[in-house]
Amino acid sequence: MIWMSYCLGLFLLFSTFFCLLAEKPPNIALILSDDQARKDYGFMGHEDIKTRHLDELASQSIVCRCGYVASPLCRPSLETIVTGLYPFDYGITGNDVESKNNREKLDIPLQKEFYSHPSFIRELVNNGYLAHQSGKWWVGSHFDGGFTHGMKLSGRHDSKESLDIGRKGIEPTKPVIDLSLKDQKPFFIGYAPLLPHTPHNPPEHLLKKYTKPGRAMDVAKYYAMGE
Questions:
Q1: I need a labelling partner for 89 at 20 to 30 A (CA). Which of 167, 181, 187, 200 fits?
Q2: Separation CA 224–CA 48 (nearest Å)
Q3: pLDDT at 187
């Protein structure tokens, strides 16, 4: 996770409160990119990277141009967003427990501590939202996280399908949106693709677009992954 912050965690919690007070609760999509610098979007003023769909979304939204991570690592950054707390408050300050042996077993007490704290996801679901998880989710299954639907069932990052989200379309998120329309319930989509994180394997037409004399190939690949 990149520049999503403690402040954003609090913002989401307060926003959740006001959403629940609204006469008609809004649908919510939370999009989290991975290993992407704060400036590397079209709407943030990057000179080369084109992100036209996000730019269009930003044009209809409030854009917070300053963000600060609570930790320089994926897992505590995500969990700060969910709880609005600092990593030391919920006891997870790194991506993994120290040992690579019995990692899942050793992680259980950390997950238990994390789930003892408030979560804006559970709050939304408790107030009638359908909630879908896709992409990276570090803390147990999507059921553990309070989502009504999702892709992660177990393990550190679970299935290859969960990590393919975005690289091979976003079809898994669509049935929940259809269900929300059918049942007349608001939805929350947590979309956390492993993008533009490695592997940097963009489509050939995008790589060609960003390849030019004097630009290192790894930079061209990163720019293409951003788009």
A1: 187
A2: 10
A3: 96
Q: Sign of torsion, CA 116 119 125 126? A: positive
SS3 category, 3: coil
Which is more confidently placed, 190 or 17? 190
- Counting other chains too, the contacts that 112-119 makes at CB distance below 8 Å and 24 or more residues apart are 114/79, 114/83, 114/90, 114/139, 115/139, 115/140, 115/144, 117/83, 117/85, 117/89, 117/90, 118/13, 118/83, 118/84, 119/82, 119/83, 119/145, 119/146
What is the torsional sign of CA 201, 205, 206, 209? positive
Percent of the chain past pLDDT 90, that is, above it, reads 52
H runs (alpha helix) in the chain: 6-21, 52-59, 74-83, 87-90, 103-114, 120-126, 160-164, 174-183, 204-210, 217-226
What's at 55, amino acid-wise?
D
**1 within a domain of the structure (yes/no):** no
pTM of the model: 0.84
CB 144 within 8 A of CB 119: no
Amino acid identity, position 108: I
Pair of tokens at residue 47: 């000179």
Which residues fall within 8 angstroms of residue 5, CB to CB, at 6 or more apart?
67, 68, 69, 70, 77, 80
DSSP 132-175: EEEE---SS-TTTTT-SEES--SSSS--HHHHHTBBTB-GGGHH
pLDDT of residue 153: 80
**Considering its fold, how many domains does the chain have in total?**
1
Residue 172 belongs to domain with CATH number: 3.40.720.10
